[in-house]
Amino acid sequence: MLDPIVNFFVRIFQWIGRGIGLLIGILLWPFLWAGRWYTQRGWMLKAIVGVALLALIGLYANFFYATQWWNNFNPDYPTVTAAGANPQAVGVVAGDPIAAATTGEGSTGAGSAPGAPAAPGQQQTCKRSEIAAVAADLIDFNVNQNAWISSMLASKLGFFGIPWRNTPFFDNKAAFQLGINQVMRRTTTELVDTLGRTRGTSQIDQNLQNARTALAWDEDAWYVGLRGPTRPTPSVYRDAIRSLRTFTASLEKCQATFDARSDNLLQFLDRIAGDIGSTSDILRGQIEASDAGWFDPRADDRFWFSYGQLYAYYGILNATRSDFSAIIRERNLTTLWDTMQSQMRGALNMQPWIISNGDESSFLFPSHLATMGFNLLRARSQIVEIRSVLDR
């Protein structure tokens, strides 16, 4: 009496097995065809094709390593950069004179007040810009300590011609780097237009201009482009590192300008708030476009771009606190700034292994994009509150 039921389930499983076998056959057919074609060729053609295949395998193996190993990733990196600052510059705004070591005999310069002019026999130094220093370190992290993914040949080839950003594979690190780079472009623009000039009317600092121009280079440039030979992106971005560090060195010698005024700080925070708001809107658009949970191929690159932006702004805002230390102290912004920094650092603890873009009320599929968007908006609200205090 149970035989018809048993036979029904047997047929169901047979159909499932045949379907899986057919799917595997379709996937393997190109490789089987290529294998038969290869075995029928002459030895010379076999050697050429074999070398090309080995090169392709090596290319993708290197790409796999570059995308999966994140060298020197450290959410607490601002403390490392701050350790390189001059301890005598505490409480001094960027570009202002600080006590310097004595060059003559019988005096060390000890006891000189921050911001005081150099005494006879002393070499005058000024406080460096931590914003420029952190920016240089972040670019170095992107292109020297790690491979720049977007301009790698395997990245440009994609997954059988499909861009990696449209797949769930190997695009997380690239998106993270692009998020950092977005912040670097914004930061160098502000350094050129306002922070590195006196009231925005003096001559533009050439080193800062060079850094901004370098970071405007195409993010996915390889050695050969549509217009012929060109410079790869990492090579050009290294020029930006050198330019920023040259500016920092000039500022320490009091040979450059950093205009640490409250209205410049207000404008810089405005730009950052606008940038973060734009990214949160991108996340909202992806949330509304899909609720595929773990199976949304665009969720991971959206998330990691936002994470990269938050990672970079955490360091830049920490540096901003140092560069505008006197203003922050005078306007009683210390507590607000502490809260903002604490919230941003807490958001960087969110590092899910697989990104899900499920419905926000889903029980099984969390919405990591919604959580990241919430963290961005919390940071933005703190920035806006600080900005409103400055504007009073």
From TrEMBL:
Pfam families: DUF2333. Residues 104-124 are annotated as: Disordered. Keywords: Membrane, Transmembrane, Transmembrane helix. The chain crosses the membrane at residues 12-32, 44-65. It comes from the Bacteria. Residues 104-121 have a biased composition (Low complexity). This is DUF2333 family protein.
